[in-house]
Amino acid sequence: MTISPPDPAAARTEVEFVDLLRRLKAWSGRSYRDIQHHAQRAGRHLPYSTAAGMLKRETLPRRETVTAFVLGCGLDEQTAAAWDAARTRLDMGLPPEPEPRPVPVPVPGHAPRRRRWVAAVAAVAAVLVFAANVHQTEDEVALRDVPALNR
Fold this sequence. Notes:
This is XRE family transcriptional regulator. It contains 6 helices and no strands.
């Protein structure tokens, strides 16, 4: 069973974001010098002392530092972009994005409750219209039978 790296979208505060970076380092199993080396291979500059200092703070690190750190931990550019997006969201003071709600799957053979109500209301309306027409027709017939009105 493979354990996934931490998800930066879960961070609600700067402190939680830095904690997720610490978890990312633990997940990678790399030393600070290894992270520096792998960041350099990815074309990023990240001294090991900067990486170590970043994880001791409780404030957001710089964007470039986060990207270099994520790449140094062995993740790809796309994942580094997700970490950058989470960092930017926190820097702007925005709340985390809510998880998408699952779309309810209709059960075959069972009409949703709203459809049943619409059908029932339509049926009652049809009966009322029919009854009103029958009543009106009876009144017209009764009026024709009154001799004073037929002149």
